[in-house]
Structure formats: C-alpha cells, structure tokens
Amino acid sequence: GSVPEAPPLVLPSDKRNTTAFTFHLITQMQPCVFTEADRLGRRRGLKVGFAGLACRHCFGAYGSGRFFPSSVKTMSDASKTL
Question: Which parts of 1-82 are beta strand (E)?
C-alpha cells in the first residue's frame, strides 16, 4: 500500500516569517523519526525516535533525504545536506 501523506510542516500564513526559498524547501519536507537503520557516521549518538526531516520525494529510499538536526549549529551549517 501507499504511505499516508504527512501533514504540512508549514502553512501559507508562515510565508511572512521566512524567505520564499526556505518556505518552499520546508514544503517539500515531512517529519520522520530516527531508527536503528539510520545509525551511521555522526548520527551514532542519537536515540531511536529522535525527530527529523525527510524529503517528500525520496522518503523511503535507503539513507536518502533524511536529516536529523541535533543542534542549532547543525541547522545553520550550509555543508549539511539531505
């Protein structure tokens, strides 16, 4: 079966609080949670169930499009990719 669509992370009223680029980027994301299968590299210290973001387009592909920001620095680091 298909995966049910997650509710949006941002609403149209949120546009006024951010840039058009950031708003569009977040509209392409959905919530996800950290699993044992995600435990690699610097992610080793995260607990199963830790909240993250997943790309709506590649969610479900092994190791792709999942981001688990664990600090403000991680969120603001331009070298981090999905």
Answer: 29-33, 51-55, 66-67
